[in-house]
Amino acid sequence: MKKRYSPLNQALHWITALCMFAILPLAWVMINAKAGSAIQHGTYNWHKTLGCIVLLVTVFRIGWRFIDGPPPYAERVAAWDRHLAHLVYWLFFAVMIWMPVTGFMESAYDGYPIKLFNLIQTPEIFAKNDHMASLFAWLHGLGQWPVYALIILHLLGVAFHLIFTKSGVLGRILPEHALDPNGL
Ligand code: HEM
Ligand code: HEM
Among the atoms of ligand 1, which is closest to the Cα of residue 96? Predict the structure, then answer.
């Protein structure tokens, strides 16, 4: 019986995590940077580019999960704990679609199409519309709160298992020989 997520699922998890941990500080810098400065343009473009990568990876992951799913949990992991973990994952998947889509729509209606990797300009797809831009800006801003809450819950969950249950949960998302997924 498999004990770990497959290497592909592990890689996709860590690519997403790295992107998320870059997207958030980029957001805080870009919205506070001097308007029109090179640093503001650069941080916006990288925020948007990494957000699009998260969207693509997440859509793929959701489909792929049905073919190559998570490994079964160790018996020691309680039923309530598994349910909570699954709830957090599905909410994560939902916000990782919600955030890029609302961010994309905001930029498109605001007349600022994405410059991928701060290099490749993409075309304008909508006419500028301030009302729609502020609606999507509001939806995008609102979505950050569940993102923060889920990251905190997820990391508390990992810490709880590492410290108290020692059920090897972290090993499930790490390569062979990193940690024993049957317990520390
Ligand atoms: C998982 C992906 C994403 C996350 C977690 C995320 C998160 C955030 C956060 C936390 C802010 C600051 C909100 C505030 O304080 O008002 C923000 C702002 C922004 N994001 Fe994203 N974002 C993501 C993807 C995207 C994408 C793909 C785009 C565009 C293609 C985008 C465009 C923007 C824009 C234009 C703002 C400025 C909002 C404003 O002040 O009007 N974001 N994002
Ligand atoms: C913002 C960053 C992160 C996001 C969005 C995220 C999201 C996810 C998601 C959606 C899953 C479920 C995967 C699936 O079932 O297909 C997962 C699993 C997991 N993540 Fe993260 N993660 C993040 C950061 C981290 C970090 C920093 C750690 C370690 C400290 C971590 C440890 C784990 C572990 C151990 C699992 C497997 C747990 C289990 O099988 O129940 N994650 N993560």
Answer: 1
